[in-house]
Amino acid sequence: MTTRAPFLMTVMALMLTACAMALGGPPAPPVHNLADQPFACELLARPTGRGTELEGRLDARDAFAGSYELRVRGPGVAVDQAGELSLAAGQSALLGQASLSGDLSSLDARLTVTGAGRTVTCPLRQP
C-alpha cells in the first residue's frame, strides 16, 4: 500500500491541475466594436480650470440589463465606481462621475459595461 500512495497522490494532483486549468481560463477580451451592441457608451473627459472631469454615459438602443465599472488610476488617485443597471430601449444613464486634479495624460481611466455575456470597454472621448 505504501508504494501506491505516491502514485495516487501524483494522479490526484494532475487531475486537480487539469480541472483548475479548464475552469480557470482567462476572461473574455473586452469588445471594442460597439456597432453591434444593444447600447452606445462613452467616457467623456472634460478639462476644467482645476483638472479633469470624467463622466460615463450609456444610451440603450434596445432593452439592456447589466453592470458597469468606472476605474481611474493616477498619481495619488484611485477611483472605483460600479453598479447594476437596467434600461428600456431609448433610455440613457449616467454611469459615474469623477472630478480630479491634473490633466488626462496623467490618468488611466476606463469604463467597462458588462451584459448579455459580454464585456465592452467604452471609448474615451474629449470634447
UniProtKB/TrEMBL annotation:
<dbReference type="InterPro" id="IPR047726">
    <property type="entry name" value="CsgH_dom"/>
</dbReference>
<dbReference type="Pfam" id="PF21112">
    <property type="entry name" value="CsgH"/>
</dbReference>
<protein>
    <recommendedName>
        <fullName>CsgH-like domain-containing protein</fullName>
    </recommendedName>
</protein>
<feature type="domain" description="CsgH-like">
    <location>
        <begin position="40"/>
        <end position="122"/>
    </location>
</feature>
<dbReference type="InterPro" id="IPR053722">
    <property type="entry name" value="Curli_assembly_CsgC/AgfC"/>
</dbReference>
<dbReference type="InterPro" id="IPR048632">
    <property type="entry name" value="CsgH-like"/>
</dbReference>
<feature type="signal peptide">
    <location>
        <begin position="1"/>
        <end position="20"/>
    </location>
</feature>
<keyword id="KW-0732">Signal</keyword>
